[in-house]
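Lecture notes, part 5. Sequence design as translation. It can be helpful to think of inverse folding as translation between two languages: the language of shapes and the language of residues. The source text, in structure tokens, appears below.
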């Protein structure tokens, strides 16, 4: 049976440029929709984070005016999946050899910790060298930034990818006062960032890398990961 690792942030606060604290957590749809599809396809799914810390739910993702009418189902699925799994695995104790795919959901947490997490960087670099499937959605692609070599060269430079856009960050109301914006930073680091319409599903596959732009892209990203894994079976 194929195994997929979902890597969560452990951050519950995002410090802004003015020193204020913005509460964050995992975005329900971005965790639930991929998990649902992976389990339905017959894959074993593990959860991990820095230090094995369980991140709280981002309450915005439980608000139907923000996250859509189906958000309650996503919240329930995500919480049930995490409860059933139990304590999260620690990134420091994980090797790429154990998994067929690694997937990074969003919420703002990845721009707080995952983008500079050395354990995640090691894991992603090893997975990419082995040709394992790597998926990321919304702010999850921030975690890709962690994969650099000793000279600072980025593993994913030159690769096509999608991520939460700077325009979407402005529309959400979190661009002003943000320490940095994801899409622009990915481009600065050498990514070939592409984007669709704000808050509409948009995914890109570049060889073993599958990325989605926003919460609406969570299920399509997961479907693309499943398709990629089935093609290798």
């Amino acid at each position: 049976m194929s195994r997929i690792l979902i890597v969560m942030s452990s951050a519950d606060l995002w410090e802004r440029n003015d020193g204020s604290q913005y509460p964050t957590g995992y975005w329900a749809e971005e965790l639930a929709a991929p998990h649902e599809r992976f389990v339905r396809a017959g894959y074993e799914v593990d959860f991990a984070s820095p230090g094995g810390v369980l991140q709280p739910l981002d309450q915005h993702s439980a608000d139907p005016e923000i996250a859509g009418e189906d958000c309650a189902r996503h919240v329930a699925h995500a919480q049930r999946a995490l409860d059933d799994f139990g304590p999260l695995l620690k990134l420091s104790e994980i090797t790429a050899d154990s998994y067929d795919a690694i997937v990074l959901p969003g919420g703002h947490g990845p721009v707080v910790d995952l983008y500079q997490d050395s354990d995640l960087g090691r894991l992603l670099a090893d997975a990419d060298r082995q040709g394992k499937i790597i998926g990321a959605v919304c702010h999850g692609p921030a975690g890709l930034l962690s994969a650099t070599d000793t000279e600072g060269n980025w593993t994913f430079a030159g690769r096509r990818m999608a991520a939460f856009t700077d325009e979407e960050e402005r529309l959400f109301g979190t661009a002003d006062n943000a320490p940095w914006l994801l899409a622009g930073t990915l481009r600065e680091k050498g990514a070939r960032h592409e984007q669709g319409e704000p808050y509409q599903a948009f995914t890109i596959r570049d060889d073993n890398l599958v990325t989605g732009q926003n919460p609406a892209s969570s299920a399509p990203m997961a479907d693309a990961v499943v398709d990629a894994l089935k093609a290798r079976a």
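The translated text above is only one of many valid answers, since several sequences can fold into similar shapes. The helical segments are 28-40, 64-67, 71-85, 118-129, 166-172, 182-189, 218-232.
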